[in-house]
């Protein structure tokens, strides 16, 4: 059974916080909502929680209309990006709170709280005060509290965004573990993030949101291979996918008078005309037989180098698998790996992708 | 910090301290005087300038007929009215402040800010303006010269203070905590009482302090609305200020009336250092 | 109203909100509605001790007040003078004191508590004490001045009586300003100060460019609150000078008091009250807006 949203809309003055959002989610699955800040992710989560009522549209869960059920009667749990815990309670009391509220037996509470605490790696922390904990630990407490309820819908609103880099990576790994072992066959996990890498890592289905709309809902793989529009490709790629305008003429792709190459095979069937082409940064490489570009910026990141190059009006970012410092203005020779080229119509829709998704 | 600044600092602070203490010192020594010592010109040090007596202090327990003030009853009346008025104001005011902080009201063109403004604007009215209507109203209800009537009036005086302080305080508590309580199964009332309120104790203490200060120090309403049955401390003391003013009694009484709130001063200072007061943001 | 973390969308909108708001609001309204309504009705009548009845004379009282009553407007002028002066002084002194006990100083706790005490006292009672202090023949102040052969008339000269009132008010209420400002100072972030000291700014420059601007919103709030309270000044005047000598310390409240509870011209004093209220509400809204603009531009 599932959570079904139909045409949810929330309007505030002139803008839509949610614009005709519909989706269908099934139990036992993880769903990641990805979008830029202010895309409507938090609004959507709060609407599912019942903290905000939609102006129009409805939500049903397990066949029941959610509209008439107030927040406190829905079986949900939520973890915020700011580490939200009850400041006046200890760690143990924090995690026990929802169970106590429900009227669970004391022994049962104890069993569940201890289990939840050990799941998030906080054994023995029961007596500590919240203020004495670090950010990461506080967030784990919030997580433990959300687990202990065995809620049907678990909402996580960018839970890792306020943690430092290392902690984020560590918790991300633990996450999958936590949510796989639980009685998660029965619950729906909804996770929101702005980070495409995080979304891909979690696996599961992805809903891409922009300006209050869900612009694509598909598996992580599908979103990667066939982003439905340029918008989606921008939101779900980090580093951003290179997008540049060009034409298809006489069997060639023409980006500028000097830059032309043959049509890749998956572009057969596309008419002539103007297109927006997309190419991931990793598909750019240095090659002596390539096109001349000049360097605008080079950034070394770990064991790779981001190279920003330019040829007249055309700007490209490449992700090179080497560590090298390029000086600004240096001339380099760039090769496009056309097997991985995307074609979008001028209005942004996907026309052809290397993975065969023709939209 | 250069020596110049340092000396200047201590100098200013000391000067002001002397200014603050001066009237108390004067009252202290005057409370030990009698008719002779007062009327022969200003005198200062006991045993040196004049003969000290305990007349002033003894008169606190004598009734006016015997030339005293009998402040025991007025003292307790003041305590009652201040405590009750503050208590009710805090209860009603905190509830109202919570709603103004968390919820959105829209009755026609009137919105949250307007309602808050309404509460707070009650402070603009001088007691004089309200006293005549209150006089008539309490009269009709048979509540003149009663503790209860006065408490009602004090609630009007003090609730705005409670609302002002608590709204600001609640605004600083993240609403996400309320939301989490709701998600954890609390209805809004439970969320308030179980989660928000325990976290607001410092704010309530501060509001309580201010209510008590403004309640204890009121003169005018007590003056207008009570006569013989009920007398509050300030009224009792000022009543003495008639033709032949017994300075010694007055001074003793004044010192007694000040004492309770010195305790409040300590409590306020403690909370100040803890950083619990940052109201007054408008 | 205040820097709220919860700006923008308030996500809780339940029916329960009324239960929170209404008890307090209704009680307040109930106790207030009658007095205010009654005052308005009174202002339209000519009730006084000779003709104690609630007749209806329209706006006669108001007309009289605007055309024939210079005393009211003089009282207003005096009120403005007195309240603005005292609040101004309280601000300067209060701020200075707050700055002095803000950081490390010996006996810090003692000084802070001491500075708070005057506002905890009952104004009337302390004013009675001040009455004895400033007593023209038996008080210590004139005892001191007699050393110079002077006997200033603190309470019976037109100019000096104003001074005495101001002094007592400053003594009484500077602590309030002090409290608000000190609380504000204690809540300031540390970063700007670190930056300033790195830049080598001395105490004066730090104050002008860091402390004062940061304290702007709190200063405005404190001044407005204090102005509201100061404009009601009654107790001090009542005890110290009874508005005198003559009318030199007569403020609006006192004048209304005289007309209402001394001369029993209820109708007329009601009209005075209503007019006063309206002027005050407008003034404060305007003052608040001006102050905000001033402070914001000063940044």
Structure description:
The complex is a heterotrimer of chains A (359), B (282) and C (299). Chain A is α+β, with helices and mostly antiparallel strands and 359 residues long. Chain A has 8 helices and 20 strands. Chain A has 2 domains: 2-227, P-loop containing nucleotide triphosphate hydrolases (Rossmann fold), CATH 3.40.50; 242-352, Nucleic acid-binding proteins (OB fold (Dihydrolipoamide Acetyltransferase, E2P), Beta Barrel). In chain A, the strands form 4 sheets. In chain A, strands 6-7-8-3-9-10 form a 6-stranded mixed beta sheet, sandwiched between helices. A 6-stranded antiparallel beta sheet of chain A has the order 13-12-11-14-19-20, with no helix packed on it. The longest helix of chain A has 17 residues, at 165-181. The model of chain A has no long low-confidence stretch (mean pLDDT 85). Chain B has a two-stranded antiparallel ribbon with strand order 1-2. The mean pLDDT of chain B is 78. By secondary structure, chain C is mainly alpha-helical. Chain C has helices at 17-43, 60-67, 70-102, 108-120, 123-133, 140-145, 158-186, 191-198, 203-214, 216-230, 235-240, 252-262, 266-298. The longest helix of chain C is centred in the first third of the chain and has 33 residues, at 70-102. The interface between B and C is large, with 108 and 106 residues.
Assign an overall shape of chain C. Answer: globular
Q: In terms of structural class, how would the helical and strand content of chain A be classed?
A: alpha+beta
> Tell me about the biggest sheet of chain A?
6 strands, mixed
Kindly estimate the percentage of residues of chain C that lie in beta strands according to DSSP.
under 5%
- Please provide the count of β strands of chain A: 20
For the termini of chain C, the CA-CA separation is 20 Å
The CATH topology of chain C comes to MetI-like fold
What is the string of SSEs of chain C from the N terminus onward? HHHHHHHHHHHHH
Shape of chain A: elongated
Q: What's the number of helices of chain A?
A: 8
**Structural class label of chain C:** mainly alpha
């Amino acid at each position: 059974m599932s959570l079904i949203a139909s045409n949810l809309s929330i309007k505030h003055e002139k803008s839509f916080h949610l614009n005709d959002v519909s989706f269908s989610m099934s139990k036992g699955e993880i769903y990641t909502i990805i979008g830029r800040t202010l895309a409507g992710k938090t609004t959507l989560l709060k609407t599912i929680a019942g903290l905000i009522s939609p102006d129009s549209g409805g939500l049903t869960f397990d066949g029941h209309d959610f509209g008439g059920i107030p927040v406190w009667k829905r079986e949900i749990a939520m973890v915020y990006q700011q580490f939200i815990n009850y400041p006046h309670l200890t760690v143990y009391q924090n995690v026990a709170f929802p169970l106590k509220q429900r009227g669970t037996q004391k022994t049962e509470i104890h069993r569940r709280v201890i289990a939840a605490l050990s799941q998030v790696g906080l054994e023995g922390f029961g007596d500590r005060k919240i203020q004495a904990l670090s950010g990461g630990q506080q967030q784990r407490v919030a997580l433990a509290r959300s687990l202990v309820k065995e809620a049907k819908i678990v909402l996580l609103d960018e839970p890792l965004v306020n943690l430092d880099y290392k902690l984020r990576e560590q918790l991300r790994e633990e996450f999958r573990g936590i949510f796989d072992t639980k009685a998660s066959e029965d619950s729906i996990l909804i996770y929101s993030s702005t980070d495409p890498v995080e979304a891909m890592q979690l696996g599961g289905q992805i809903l891409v949101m922009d300006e209050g709309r869900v612009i694509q809902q598909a598996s992580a793989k599908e979103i990667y291979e066939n982003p439905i529009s340029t918008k989606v490709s921008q939101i779900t790629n980090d580093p951003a996918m290179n997008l540049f305008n060009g034409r298809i003429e006489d069997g060639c792709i023409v980006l500028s008078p000097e830059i032309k190459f043959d049509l890749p095979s998956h572009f057969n069937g596309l008419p002539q005309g103007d297109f927006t082409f997309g190419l991931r940064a990793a598909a750019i490489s240095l090659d002596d037989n390539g096109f001349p570009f000049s360097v605008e910026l080079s950034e070394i990141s770990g064991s790779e180098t981001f190279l920003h190059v330019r040829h007249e009006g055309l700007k490209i970012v490449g992700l090179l698998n080497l560590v090298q410092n390029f000086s600004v203005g240096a001339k380099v020779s760039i090769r496009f790996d056309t097997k991985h080229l995307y074609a979008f119509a001028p209005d942004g829709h996907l026309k052809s992708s290397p993975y065969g998704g023709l939209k | 910090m250069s020596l110049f600044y340092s000396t200047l600092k201590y100098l200013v602070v000391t000067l002001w301290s002397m200014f603050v203490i001066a009237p108390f010192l004067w009252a202290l020594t005057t409370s030990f005087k009698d008719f002779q010592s007062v009327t022969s010109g200003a005198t200062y040090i006991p045993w040196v300038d004049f003969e000290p007596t305990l007349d002033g202090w003894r008169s606190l327990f004598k009734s006016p007929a015997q030339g005293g003030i009998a402040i025991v009853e007025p003292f307790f009346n003041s305590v009652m009215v201040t405590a009750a008025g503050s208590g009710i104001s805090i209860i009603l005011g905190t509830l109202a402040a919570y709603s103004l902080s968390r919820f959105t009201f829209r009755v026609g063109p009137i919105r949250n800010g307007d309602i808050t403004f309404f509460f707070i604007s009650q402070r603009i009215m001088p007691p004089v303006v309200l006293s005549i209507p209150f006089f008539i109203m309490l009269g009709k209800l048979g509540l003149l010269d009663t503790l209860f009537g006065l408490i009602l009036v004090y609630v009007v005086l003090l609730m705005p203070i409670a609302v002002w302080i608590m709204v600001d305080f609640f605004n600083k508590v993240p609403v996400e905590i309320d939301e989490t309580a709701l998600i954890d199964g609390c209805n809004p009332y439970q969320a308030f009482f179980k989660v928000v309120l325990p976290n607001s104790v410092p704010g309530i203490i501060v509001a309580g302090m201010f209510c008590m200060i403004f309640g204890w120090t009121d003169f005018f309403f007590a003056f207008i609305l009570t006569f013989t049955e009920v007398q509050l401390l300030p009224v009792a003391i000022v009543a003495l200020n008639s033709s032949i003013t017994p300075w010694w009694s007055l001074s003793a009484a004044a010192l007694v009336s000040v004492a309770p709130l010195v305790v409040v001063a300590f409590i306020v200072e403690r909370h100040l250092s803890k950083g619990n007061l940052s109201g007054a943001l408008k | 109203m205040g820097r709220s973390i919860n700006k923008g969308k308030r996500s809780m909108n339940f029916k329960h909100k009324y239960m929170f708001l209404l008890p307090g609001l209704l009680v307040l309204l109930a106790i207030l509605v009658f007095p205010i309504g009654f005052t308005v009705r009174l202002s339209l009548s000519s009730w006084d001790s000779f003709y104690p009845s609630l007749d209806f004379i329209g706006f006669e009282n108001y007309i009289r007040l605007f055309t024939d009553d210079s005393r009211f407007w003089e009282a207003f002028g005096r009120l403005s003078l007195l309240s603005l002066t005292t609040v101004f002084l309280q601000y300067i002194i209060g701020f200075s004191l707050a700055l002095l006990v803000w950081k490390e100083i010996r006996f810090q706790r003692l000084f802070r508590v001491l500075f708070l005490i005057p506002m905890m006292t009952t104004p009337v009672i302390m004013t009675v004490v001040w009455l004895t202090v400033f007593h023209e023949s038996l008080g210590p102040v004139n005892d001191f001045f007699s050393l110079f052969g002077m006997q200033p008339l603190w309470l019976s000269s037109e100019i000096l009586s104003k001074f005495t009132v101001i002094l007592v008010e400053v003594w009484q209420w500077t602590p309030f300003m002090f409290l608000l400002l000190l609380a504000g100072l204690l809540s300031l972030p540390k970063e700007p100060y670190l930056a300033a000291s790195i830049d080598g700014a001395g105490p004066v420059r730090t104050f002008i460019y860091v402390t004062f601007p940061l304290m702007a919103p709190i200063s405005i709030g404190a001044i407005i609150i204090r102005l509201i309270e100061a404009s009601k000044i009654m107790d001090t005047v009542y005890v110290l000078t009874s508005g005198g000598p003559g009318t030199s310390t007569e403020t609006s409240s006192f004048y209304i008091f005289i007309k209402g509870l001394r001369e029993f011209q209820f109708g007329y004093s009601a009209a005075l009250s209503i007019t006063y209220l309206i002027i005050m509400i407008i003034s404060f809204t305007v003052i608040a807006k001006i102050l905000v603009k001033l402070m914001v531009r000063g940044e």
